[in-house]
Specification:
Length: 233
Amino acid sequence: MKIEIWSDVACPWCYIGKRHFESALEKFAHHDEVDIVWRSFQLDPTLPTVSEETHTEHLQRKFGRSAAQVAEMNRQMQERANAVGLDYHFDEIKSANTFTAHRLIHFAAAHGLQGEMKERLMKAYWSEGLKLWDTDSLVQIATEIGLDADEARATLESEAYADDVRADFRRAGMFGIQGVPFFAIDEKYGVSGAQPVEVFSQVLEQAWADSHPLIKVVGGSDAGMCEDGSCAI
């Protein structure tokens, strides 16, 4: 079973949704037979590559909210993050363009470490104040999950994997995806948003049942069969 997940590193709901999905997947009997592919999505592709604008300032500017209103939004989001074991440090986050981070995720995917990179980047951004334009910090993250530092740096200093990122954007458009997180299962089921664990569990079971239907066997009426502990002749 293939599950494609569109998300953005700079999306607080995406990290929470990731945890909800992981909890459901852990309980899923066939989790070892699930292939997960992380797809790129940008909530705000107009952001500059380098920016010292804080997360709070960004929300104030983008949505026209007061500092007090944004503080309340952050408080509520922090509560939801804490509920799944995450700790957001809004005061340390700098809102900048995420395109380079998505290229790094594709680089990791080429080495079989896409999931590890996605998790490490989200933790670094939301909990450690990672500056997405800081090449040294990104290289350090790459080495932490087992990637070569020189190869990671060469990737970041080039346009490598840019076409792969844009291909994910186009695929999102084909699916009609306008927000994230979004989970597409076998190109048949779509789950939008950081749904509760129970919703993910239900969809996983339904998708598996649809892709692995029981085989109906037809036999003659005189065929032998044991029922309720009795085997009649």
